[in-house]
Amino acid sequence: MVASSLFASSLFERQMAMYTTYHRDSRNKATHAVGIPLIVFSVVLACTLVPVAEVAGFGTVTLGLALSVMVWALWIALNRPVGLALGLLVVPSVLLSAWLTERLDAGAVRWLALGLFVSGWVFQLVGHAFEGRKPALVDNLFQALIGPMFVATEGLMALGLAPAGLHERIERQAASRS
Questions:
Q1: What gap in Å lies between CA 178 and CA 175, rounded to an integer?
Q2: Does pTM top 0.70 for this prediction?
Q3: For residues 16 and 172, what is the distance between their CA atoms, to the nearest angstrom?
């Protein structure tokens, strides 16, 4: 178990170092702090329209819930404190998506999800215009899963709650990539 935990932590730090090299400009970081949560929520919202299974005593499991649980588990496996912090994005996204899909017709939910998704990407692309560099996921699709972890890590660092030494280890690896 310890070896797999060390591998996941090392993978997380390598991927974060790559992501960090694409996100140095403070304006890019700020647009990502808005754009990435919009994109995550929009995907959860759209996927909540797709029922996957009925579970006795629970109700309908949607694709939105299933994907959210799987991705959140991956984030926790990669880095427990950062992954757990992402619960502040995942749990409200799942709950709000369920609430909206119960109250709006499917067409309205699709349009809302699309609007939020496009808006999120507009924020992302404006940020990358400031940065003068393409999005990291163009070079490595796994970076799409690292983006939310980057935003969470930046937030934890700003609050003084990031795991000890994490920022320094990521910056050291990022510097060796530049």
A1: 5
A2: yes
A3: 11
The dihedral formed by the CA atoms of 129, 25, 75 and 136, expressed in degrees to the nearest 10: 40
Mean pLDDT confidence for 130-156: 90
The confidence score (pLDDT) of residue 7 equals: 58
Residue range(s) defining the domain that contains residue 11: 2-177
Angle at 73 between CA 69 and CA 79, to 5 degrees: 145
* pLDDT tens-digit readout, 75-91: 999 999 999 999 999 99
pLDDT for 9 beyond 90: no
Are 18 and 140 contacting, i.e. CB atoms less than 8 angstroms apart?
yes
DSSP string computed for 9-70? HHHHHHHHHHHHHT--SHHHHHHHHHHHHHHHHHHHHHHTTSEEEEETTTEEEEHHHHHHHH
* Domains in the chain, number: 1
CA–CA separation, 105 vs 1, rounded Å?
46
Q: Phi and psi at residue 24, in whole multiples of 5°?
A: -100, -30
* DSSP secondary structure, 121-173, as one string: HHHHHHHHHHHTS--GGGT-TTHHHHHHHHHHHHHHHHTT-SPTTHHHHHHHH
Please state, in angstroms and as integers, the Cα–Cα distance from residue 142 to each residue in 14, 33, 135, following that order: 12, 19, 12
- CA–CA gap between residue 95 and residue 137 (Å, rounded): 28
- What's the chain's average pLDDT? 91
